[in-house]
Design goal:
The protein has helices at about 1-30, 35-50, 60-75, 80, 90-100, 110-130, 135-145, 155-160, 165-180, 180-195, 200-210, 215-230, 235-245, 250-265, 270-280, 285-295, 300-325, 330-355, 360-380, 385-395. The chain is mainly α. Among the domains are: about 10-165, Alpha Horseshoe (Serine Threonine Protein Phosphatase 5, Tetratricopeptide repeat); about 300-395, no CATH class. It is elongated.
């Protein structure tokens, strides 16, 4: 029995020595300069054997050299070397992290702290590439590995390379959404909201999820939380308006805008939105008043000039219809009113025409309406040369 025990001990010692030799073989192979493909293959084979064996599977030296081997595989510019393992970047990062964790004597600590963030940059780029190539599950796996590196990146090298936890949360949201895992997507968006990530889109994205779950109240709450931090963001404001209109809460929105205007009376966007809401409610007097407030703050505001011009034009056009059904005396009185409306409309529409950037489809649509309205105004006031100019511009569109 004693002899058997001695034999077993000898076998274990031989096995342990063999695995240490595998580590040394890997170390020796990657020390050659220049690095040769055959040596890289030999190093990978040797370190894989050491990693798979219980004697050395959690040895800090093994982890260190395994990290170096896979870092070289991932970093090699030749397709042949890259083909040795498509997950080489991931294995390099995991190995370096484990080396730091197990290296109680700090034999490899200083170099590993440098190598771990350098290899993490490669892994991050691999994750971005996986997402772009429609492989979101791989991207998610890679991104999650990176979180383990932050405690050891004490000099913020990852941050200097635009890799932060917040960026990972955002990318994980995008990857999870692409893979259809909305629970994970929502969880990562919530993390961004919790840390007040400086991107208003996160509130739009979260409200999209709320709407998919048919929770309009939650969507409104999400957008209003975003507006607490990005009060002037046009997309958040637009989404808020859409949600309130969708839920039939126009009056609630108008009241909220009134509160916001009281707090920030020089915010032209708030007046513009409230004016458009009043116009939808056919409260033209209040709409006109709000548009004029915008122009007091910014006389060259394209949308306010356009909205006010079209408001006056539409009122005038409506009065023309009514006048045709009235008695002569009533019609004459109405004619004075619609002529005044058209006169006011011309002032603002001419200005809107000058200011229109004509960049987007919406700009071009507004430009076309402006030309059509001015053409009618000029024709009605017997300025046929000006009406002809508008017609010519319309034909060029």
């Amino acid at each position: 029995m004693k002899k058997l025990i001695l034999i077993l001990c000898a076998v274990c010692s031989i096995n342990a020595l063999a695995q240490q030799n595998n580590i040394q073989t890997a170390a020796k192979c990657i020390s050659y300069n220049p690095m040769r493909y055959t040596d890289l293959v030999k190093a990978k084979d040797a370190i894989d054997l050491a990693a798979a064996n219980d004697q050395t599977s959690n040895d800090p030296k093994m982890w260190y050299y395994r990290g170096k081997v896979y870092f070289m595989v991932a970093s090699d510019s030749t397709a042949k070397a890259n083909g040795l393992d498509p997950d080489a970047s991931e294995k390099a990062v995991i190995s370096f992290v484990n080396s730091i964790k197990t290296d109680t004597r700090k034999n490899f600590y200083d170099e590993t702290k440098t190598l771990v963030w350098q290899s993490t940059i490669g892994l991050f780029n691999k994750a971005v590439d996986a997402y772009a190539k429609n492989n979101p599950s791989t991207a998610i796996r890679y991104y999650n590995v990176i979180f383990d590196v932050f405690p050891y990146d004490t000099e913020n090298n990852l941050k200097r390379n635009n890799i932060t936890k917040e960026i990972l949360y955002k990318n994980l949201y995008l990857a999870a959404k692409k893979s259809g895992d909305m629970q994970t997507a929502k969880a990562n968006l919530q993390k961004l909201i919790d840390v007040k990530f400086n991107d208003p889109r996160i509130y739009i994205w979260m409200s999209d999820i709320d709407l998919e779950q048919k929770d309009t109240a939650a969507a409104i709450k999400t957008i209003e939380l975003g507006l607490d931090y990005f009060e002037d963001d046009a997309k958040l404001i637009s989404r808020q308006i859409g949600l309130y209109l969708m839920s039939g809460q126009t009056e609630v929105l108008i009241n909220k805008l009134a509160e916001s205007i009281q707090a920030t009376p020089d915010n032209e966007i708030l007046y513009l939105i409230r004016g458009e809401l009043y116009e939808q409610k056919n409260d033209y007097s209040k709409a006109s008043s709000d548009y004029q407030e915008v122009l007091k703050l910014n006389p060259d505001h394209f949308i306010a000039n356009y909205d006010l011009g079209t408001l006056f034009f539409n009122q005038g056009a409506e009065k023309v219809k009514k006048a045709s059904q009235m008695s002569m005396a009533e019609s004459d009185k109405m004619e004075k009113e619609y002529k005044m409306d058209f006169q006011n409309a011309e002032i603002y529409l001419v200005k809107a025409k000058e200011l229109n950037p004509k960049k987007t489809e919406d700009d071009l649509a507004k430009y076309k309406v402006t030309l059509q309205s001015l053409r009618q105004i000029y024709a009605r006031t017997s300025r046929m040369d000006k009406a002809g100019e508008m017609k010519a511009e319309l034909e060029k569109m």
